[in-house]
Amino acid sequence: MQELAISNLHVSVETDEGTREILRGINLTIHAGEIHALMGPNGNGKSTLSETIMGNPHYQVTQGDIRMDGQSILDWTVDQRARAGLFLAMQYPPAIAGITNAAFIRAAVNARRAKDDQMPVTRFLRELDERLTQLKMKPDMADRYLNAGFSGGEKKKNEILQLLMVQPHLAILDEIDSGLDVDAMRIVAEAVNSMRGPQFSTLIITHYQRLLDYIVPDFVHVLKDGCIIESGGAALAKQLEQSGYEDISEAAE
Predict the structure, then answer these.
(1) NCBIfam families annotated for this entry (predicted)?
(2) In this structure, is residue 133 part of a structural domain?
(3) Burial (CB count within 10 angstroms: exposed 0-12, middle 13-18, buried 19+), residue 251
(4) Residue 201 sits in a domain of what CATH number?
(5) Kind of pairing, strands 201-205 and 219-224?
(6) Structural domain boundaries enclosing 87
(7) How does pLDDT run across 186-211, given as a tens digit for each residue?
(8) What pLDDT is stored for residue 175 in this prediction?
(9) Residue 179 lies in a domain
(10) Distance between CA atoms of 132 and 235, rounded to whole angstroms?
(11) What pLDDT score was predicted for residue 249?
């Protein structure tokens, strides 16, 4: 993937009170090799954008488009998008009893490979052990049921373990710093930074500038009331840490 282009994206959801529009004209282009950070107050559409990019059917695109290398993906299933190289580290990863972590990750790795190019078990286990060591995760994490009984920090590390193993083209990291202590945040950041290169891009959704001290973004965007109201470089995140979103909102009006 060389480019993900979001143009004039409007997204609504059905609620008990009726249809609610959450995204109101998002324009965002992410080129291969770029690190983008998306910031903004709670409840303004950041996670909605991530879920929409991945194709969650709960979110209805009413206007606009999402394109990968010029091709619309709006009618693609979640599975098709993942096979094409999109990856979402979810804000609240679900627990799935009965499926081991290793089995889930191996299935995800092989789903992106041709049938005649499946990763051999010995190679998979070797790489999994290397990644567990890199993230300072206990070896028995591979044999535990997916996210079952995991702490918040373990779930977040496990999302990054999947990222390292699957090797997607574009990773959306939704509040990957949530529940991490300082040491764990540094480990996770180092793992994400190890992926940086011309064939990988990232959209990091976060509330806190501290994560961006470790993963320095090329671009920072502020999303409020369903719109991107400001974009800039890494310095914008430091500005938000000092002044909050109010000054940005007033300047955008």
Answers:
(1) sufC (TIGR01978)
(2) no
(3) exposed
(4) 3.40.50.300
(5) unpaired
(6) 3-94+169-252
(7) 999 999 999 999 999 999 999 888 89
(8) 93
(9) yes
(10) 33
(11) 57
Strand 18-31: give its sheet, edge to edge. 18-31, 3-15, 60-68, 71-72
Q: What is the DSSP letter of 139?
A: G
How far is it, in rounded angstroms, from Cα 195 to Cα 77?
A: 26
Q: Which amino acid is at 157?
A: K
Map 63-119 to HEC letters.
EEEEEECCEECCCCCHHHHHHCCEEEECCCCCCEEEEEHHHHHHHHHHHCCCHHHCC
Q: Which residue, among 89, 94, 93, 9, has the nearest Cα to 49 in the 3D structure?
A: 9
Q: Is residue 206 part of a domain?
A: yes
Sheet holding 86-89, edge to edge: 86-89, 170-174, 201-205, 35-39, 219-224, 227-232
Asked if 10 contacts 61 with a C-beta cutoff of 8 angstroms, the reply is yes
As a whole number of angstroms, the distance between CA 110 and CA 163 comes to 14
Tokens read off for 232: 């800039």
Give the number of domains in the chain.
1
Asked, for residue 186, whether it belongs to a domain, the answer is: yes
pLDDT in tens, 237-251: 999 888 888 766 554
Nearest to 159 by CA among 202, 220, 125: 202
Beta-bridge partner residues of 35: 202
179: confidence class by pLDDT, cuts 50, 70, 90: confident
114 is written with which tokens? 């041709």
On average, the pLDDT of the chain sits at 93
